[in-house]
Design goal:
By secondary structure, the protein is mainly beta. The chain contains 2 helices and 22 strands. It folds into 2 domains: about 180 residues, tricorn interacting facor f3 domain (Immunoglobulin-like); about 80 residues, Sandwich (Immunoglobulin-like).
Length: about 300
């Protein structure tokens, strides 16, 4: 949360915020808070401004008002950064305005997880004297698609290799901005399989490997030991076939990476199942004849 404070009661001023958040490719965020204070009384004016930010990884803090640069006074404690500004001059008179800007860079408002950019912009504490509150979020154009954005921006446009999303006061009343961008994510995986043949004769086993689907692409670096054969069943599963010697065990390791897509890369076709018999057979890991499973299914009325 962003909590602003003034030398005098906030009721003595009307406040207007225009805040710009520029997300960099490395997920750091440049912040520029442009604030306008309007005096509501003849003899009350602002001499200083302070703000509490719910972040500590903040650097390159700067400020200025209508009369020149301001040296920020910064205090960090626990999870909060307090910034205090002493204005260069007094603006006296009812309806007179003072404009000032506070800027900084923070690593706490965005993060990159693989190919996904996640953004969390803190809310400003609500005040009856907050006359307007505009936020402009700049996201690098290389992150073309948003997975989600809460709230939805009022306007959006592209400019100088950035996608710019604009929000209004009504959208941000006591609300943060949360967004996630990206089209795909890549995960490395290592799968372990353990086969045990307790029979007196060689026995074939089939194990399932993650397949390509409309929402994922699988890249295998190594499968050790390699199966005698890999085939695709009627449901599109990749099955590896292994011959295991009598009274022995076999451990298999599959190493690779999975590229996960937010949206389907191919058309998803509905398939009608005219014959459910193959899916209702009792198998080692699909014990449809198990008494407890049958009793539970009867209670849930699934069969």
């Amino acid at each position: 949360m962003i909590i602003p404070k003034f030398a005098y009661a906030a009721d003595n001023f009307d406040t207007l915020y225009k805040i710009t958040y520029i997300v960099q490719p490395d997920a750091s965020v440049k912040v520029e808070q442009r604030i306008t204070l309007t005096n509501k009384l003849v003899d009350i004016y602002a001499t200083q401004y302070s703000v509490s930010l719910g972040a500590t990884r903040i650097r390159e803090i700067w400020a200025q008002d209508d009369f020149g640069p301001i040296t920020p006074q910064v205090e960090k404690k626990e999870n909060i950064t307090n910034i205090k500004l002493e204005f260069n001059d007094r603006v006296v008179g009812k309806y007179k305005t003072l404009n000032f800007t506070l800027g900084y860079i923070t690593d706490d408002y965005a993060s990159k997880n693989g190919q996904i950019l996640e953004i969390g912009i803190p809310r400003i504490a609500e005040s009856q004297n907050l006359k307007d509150h505009q936020v402009h979020l700049h996201v690098p154009a290389l992150f073309e698609k948003s997975i989600f954005m809460i709230p939805e921006p009022r306007h959006s446009r592209q400019e100088n290799n950035f996608n710019i999303y604009s929000f209004t006061k009504e959208q941000l009343i006591d609300k943060s901005i949360i967004a996630s961008f990206g089209e795909n994510q890549v995960f490395d995986f290592k799968l372990s399989y353990h086969l045990e043949n307790d029979k007196d004769a060689e026995t074939y086993f089939e194990i399932a490997f993650p397949p390509d689907t409309p929402f994922q692409r699988i890249y295998y670096e190594n499968i050790s030991p390699a199966p005698e054969n890999i085939f695709v069943d009627q449901d599109g599963n990749w099955l590896g076939k292994y011959l295991v010697a009598p009274d022995t065990t076999l451990d298999i390791i599959a190493v690779g990476s999975a590229e996960i897509f937010i949206q389907s890369k191919t058309e998803i076709k509905e398939q009608e199942l005219d014959d459910l018999t193959p899916y209702l057979k009792s198998l080692t890991f699909w014990e449809v004849d198990n008494k407890q499973i049958k009793e539970l299914a009867a209670e849930l009325k699934t069969v």
